[in-house]
Amino acid sequence: MTVRVAIAGSTGSIGTQTIEVIRAENDRAPGSYAVTALSAGSSVDLVLAQIDELRPDVVAIADEDARREVAARTTGVTIVADSADVIDVADVIVNGVVGFAGLAVTVGTLRAGKRLALANKESLIAAGPVVQPLRTTPGAELVPVDSEHCALHQCLRSSSAPDREVARLLLTASGGPFRGRTEDDLAAVTVESALAHPTWAMGPKITVDSSTLMNKGLEVIEAHELYGTPYEDIDVVVHPQSVVHSMVEFSDGSTIAQLSMPTMHLPIGYALGYPDRIATPFGRIDWTTLGSLDFEPPDRSTFRCLDLAYAAGRIGGTAPAWLSAANEVAVEGFLSGKVRWNAIADVCVEVLERHDGAIPSDVDDVIEADQIARRIAERIVEQQ
Ligand code: MG
């Protein structure tokens, strides 16, 4: 049976790697997957090439000019504006949209009772209280496309009673390009150095988040939302080789880890194939050259964003939405030269200090919280 896949954010890092996984699987077993829908922002040439190769039924383009151009240069494809319109024609929806903009696809997919392969962690983090109840929609299934959470998902399958047997989740972190540096060393880091990740090839936003450890902090909230584990039972371990992708410690002291070479193809393929495994061995380990695996505690005073995320997660309500929005604004400011790398955490601290204690009851509340936090963050960025 052919699995119909929609790829939201098809021209980004996750989107293009999803297409590589599908290409490889279809080469082995033709007709395994059909890409029936794509959504993209404004990358006209790349989306036209994807349409040419994959022949989707529906393509959503957010940017109006880009949408007009794609419509004029294609035939036999329905071109729409709303990324949530990709959901109807697929069985599995890969959400590879960057940032808070991915919320509509997350909510729409779960509401439609379909499988969500979620690479857009921001939607789960910012809208946890709204997304959680949707996970009980009949047919709805959330499989994370984040290497750590995919690892946890695999480790948790070894327990018949995770509620009783899980002692703690151990999220691994590469430590990013600035591991081992002090706050003083990091006063004048450049965009180029923040984007030079030692082990992972990812988009710019998440790569900067990885350099500040905000990515790991947001992943702690993501793990809490996905698996219901209390914050005091989620730990972070720095592991520079990025081969152990995360671990679960069980009540008897046993720890189960998932290992593979760092490539997003594996978690993408896991989410596409679940509960089966795909046949293409992405990330095979060569044990003759692997060498050593190192572990160390994170430097929480230099990389303040990690504990900020724990704090926002514990506050709950819209606090994670505020933190995620403040961070997006600060990272955009850093990438455009308005904010120093060191000040990304300062912007987030200042925004969180003004959190209004709101608890969201629907998507509109989350959108409003996001907008309030963004406005505050933008003002702080302008004062930098
Ligand atoms: Mg990750």
Task: Give structural notes.
- By secondary structure, the protein is of the alpha/beta class.
- It folds into three domains: 3-144, Rossmann fold; 147-174 and 229-298, no CATH class; 176-212 and 302-384, Orthogonal Bundle (Rna Polymerase Sigma Factor, Chain: A).
- 43% of the residues lie in helices and 15% in strands.
- It has helices at residues 13-28, 44-54, 64-72, 103-111, 121-126, 128-134, 147-156, 162-165, 191-194, 204-212, 214-227, 265-273, 305-315, 319-335, 343-353, 363-382, and strands at residues 3-8, 33-40, 58-61, 78-80, 92-95, 115-118, 141-144, 166-173, 234-238, 244-250, 255-259.
- The strands form two sheets. Strands 4-3-2-1-5-6-7 form a seven-stranded parallel sheet, with helices on both faces. Strands 9-8-10-11 form a four-stranded mixed sheet.
- β2, α2 and β3 form a beta-alpha-beta unit.
- α1 packs across α12 and α10 crosses α14 (319-335).
- The radius of gyration is 20 Å and the shape is globular.
- The chain starts with a strand and ends with a helix.
- The structure holds magnesium ion.
- Magnesium ion (MG) is lined by residues 146-148, 219.
